[in-house]
Amino acid sequence: MSVDTARPAVPHPAGADNRVVVDGVTLSWRDLPELTLLAPAVLLAQHARDALAAARHHAVHGTELLLTTASRVDAALREELSAAGFTVTDAAGRGLAPARPRAPEAGRLWLLTSGTTGRPKRVGHTLESLTTVRGQQPGRTWLCPYAPGSYAWWQVVTLSLTQPGQHLVVVEPDQLDDWPALAAAHGVDAASGTPTFWRRALHRDPAALARVPLRQLTLGGEPVDQAILDRLRQVFPTTRISWIYASSEVGAAIVVHDGRAGFPAAWLDRAAPGRPTLGVRDGELIVTSPYHGAGLAGPVRTGDRAQVVGDRVLITGRLDSDEINVGGSKVSAGGVRDVLTAHPRVAWARVGARRAPLLGHLVVAEVVAAQDLDEAALVRWCADRLPEYAVPRRIRVLTEIPVKETLKSDV
């Protein structure tokens, strides 16, 4: 990495002196290596340090940037980005020149959507639209386990960049299995992760997890059910536990701190300056957000299923994958999953469909059990709590909770 001495001096961001721990080495944002980026730039970060240096570079210089990992960008997407005028490169400057050079858009940050329902798409943001925590915060040392460039990664990173006293400990992919030890060693007292991330930690070594002195614990990125909230509360009885609904398209739209799954139904269609407006239309969550991506002003259909149950609105999963048709009866895969994970010995569950003659589909499931648990006992548990047509006909027991680079298991 080289230094571009021709660039004007620009003040460092407010969090420049916050501690940043990467690979066990403690630096500050100010101490990170300098990058030279040819804008518009796509940086394929191979290491956390490169990703953080790119975020600091953008905060200082406003370079048009899309930050992601090499594993998320296949050959076809590289060509697509090159055709859109980006220089696609790694931190050492190796990469692909733009096929159609263009002038950079100052201050623009691009995010790739998760791609769960197809090819990743680009969503435009700015550092301001990604910075959703603005008021003065108590001092914290945050764990950041997310893949560089994801919306959740930017949420933690912008907090540390823009707020004094918000330090950062980064988890590399090869450290995920043992992150509680890393967190305890560096005094982490705030951590954000997906439900899958937290379920894996509870399943692998709950005693090690309990040794992390957390004052703030946050979940997001996947449906959050009551079982995972309750299990985390058992381990962390005095910790503030929050869950967040956020996406690249609408930003951070829902934040709940009351320890209950879902959000209050009273929040629906409630307009307030500077806050998202939430709605449910035909079973789909609709969000109008001040933190939306470029070109997404007004109501945005999220593609997530939302259901009003009593005084709460529950978000159970994606519309295109949550519904299973069993002989004409509709089954929510998320609802079945919640019944399975409510079992005290089930650490994780995934529910899907299998084609079947006459009925069209049958419900099937995969689970990871915290202790020995036979399939028949789990089927009986479901039969006591679900309609007959929604009971899984086959339950496969796995030994480990699967996780992707996104920290999700696509449940």
UniProtKB/TrEMBL annotation:
The keyword tRNA-binding does not apply. The keyword Ligase applies. Residues 42-278 form the AMP-dependent synthetase/ligase domain. Keywords: Ligase. InterPro entries: AMP-bd_C (IPR025110), AMP-bd_C_sf (IPR045851), AMP-dep_synth/lig_dom (IPR000873), ANL_N_sf (IPR042099). GO terms for molecular function: medium-chain fatty acid-CoA ligase activity. One of its GO terms (biological process) is fatty acid metabolic process. It comes from the Bacteria. It holds the Pfam family AMP-binding. Residues 338-405 form the AMP-binding enzyme C-terminal domain. Belongs to the ATP-dependent AMP-binding enzyme family. This is Long-chain fatty acid--CoA ligase.
